[in-house]
Every structure is written in structure tokens, then in C-alpha cells.
Design brief:
alpha+beta; Aminopeptidase; 7 strands; binds coenzyme A
Length: 151
């Protein structure tokens, strides 16, 4: 009998789950974060995953300084994208930031990453400006949009 779908839940990532995040990174990015980068982020930042039926489908990492936060990373496994899991992670970020008294959330995103830009706009992020040649690509550089949401 196939497993009955349970509701997805948001869980905090500990060092034990770093390899799970490595798999999500490798499936989601051309330049994935390495195990040591993720391990460092788990130590210093806030890292949450979305889990359903014991499977980890995506994750989000952010950091806070005083009353500002920066979204560092968000990813959903390709075969689970466009099903609302990214939105659940964004809701968890905003909920957690408001609990911590964060007033503004900042992020940088590749100008070509239309899926992510649409997601951020849907959650009320507005473009503050462009950082030229911010990302290194295979053929040169790509600009970043800096976006911000007031809470
Ligand atoms: C960006 C990402 C996290 C979105 O996750 P997701 O689970 O697909 O998001 P959701 O299903 O909750 O979609 C929420 C909104 O995102 C936008 N979106 C998601 N996929 C999109 C696509 N293929 N095209 C256009 N907009 C899209 C839409 O606004 C969507 O709202 P809608 O369903 O009402 O149209 C996912 O595409 C991803 O992991 N991408 C690779 C990693 C990445 O680039 N991360 C961002 C930089 S760190």
C-alpha cells in the first residue's frame, strides 16, 4: 500500500542532517554549497527544512544582525517544485523573523532567476537596486537584484 501523505512540517536542521541539505543543494544549484559551508551555516545561521513522510524536500537558510535578516538560500528539490513547498518555507522565514523582532529581510538574487524573483515578489519583497556583475558565471558575470521586505 502506498504511504498516506502526511502534512509537510518545518524542522530545524542540526549537524546530523547536513548531508540531507547537501543532497538538496546538489540537486538545485549549478554551484552548490559544500558540506563545510552548510555545516558552518547550521552553526551560525538559522536553517530549516520542509519534511513530508520522512523525506526532506527543501530548505531555507537565513541570518540575522540586530533587527535585519538576510535570506541566504532557499531550495526545493526539482521534482517537488511548483507545489507550494517554497511558499511554506517563505512563510516559516517570515514567521520566525517576526518572532525575533526582525524589521527588514534582505536578499540578493540572480537577475535571470525568474522563478525565485516571482516567489519573492509574491511574499512582498521589493527591488531596491542592482548589483552589477555580482555573480560569477561560466561565461562571465551576472547582475544581482537586491530585494527587501519590511515586516
Ligand atoms: C525558487 C524555488 C525555491 C521556488 O520553490 P517552489 O516550491 O517551486 O515554490 P512554490 O510552488 O511555493 O511557488 C510559489 C511562487 O513562486 C513562483 N514560481 C515558482 N516556480 C515558478 C516558475 N517555474 N515560474 C514562475 N514563477 C514561479 C510563483 O510566483 C509561485 O506562485 P504561484 O504558484 O501562485 O504561481 C524553486 O524554484 C527552487 O528551488 N529553485 C532552485 C534554487 C534557487 O534558485 N533558489 C533561489 C536562490 S537561493
Amino acid at each position: 500500500m502506498p504511504p498516506i501523505d502526511t502534512s509537510p512540517e518545518i524542522v530545524e536542521i542540526t549537524q546530523k542532517l547536513v548531508s540531507t541539505i547537501v543532497s538538496i543543494e546538489e540537486a538545485s544549484f549549478l554551484k552548490p554549497w559544500t558540506e563545510s559551508m552548510i555545516s558552518g551555516s547550521v552553526k551560525q545561521d538559522h536553517v530549516f527544512a520542509i519534511r513530508q513522510n520522512e523525506n526532506y524536500l527543501g530548505y531555507i537558510a537565513y541570518t540575522t544582525v540586530l533587527d535585519s535578516a538576510e535570506l541566504l538560500r532557499i531550495a526545493v528539490l526539482p521534482s517537488f517544485q511548483k507545489k507550494g513547498f517554497g511558499s511554506k518555507l517563505m512563510n516559516a522565514l517570515i514567521r520566525d523573523c517576526s518572532k525575533k523582532g526582525v524589521k527588514q529581510i534582505f536578499l540578493e538574487v540572480r537577475q535571470s532567476n525568474l522563478e525565485a524573483i516571482e516567489l519573492y515578489k509574491k511574499f512582498g519583497f521589493e527591488t531596491l537596486g542592482v548589483r552589477e556583475r555580482y555573480y560569477r558565471t561560466q561565461n562571465g558575470y551576472e547582475d544581482a537584484l537586491t530585494m527587501c521586505k519590511e515586516i
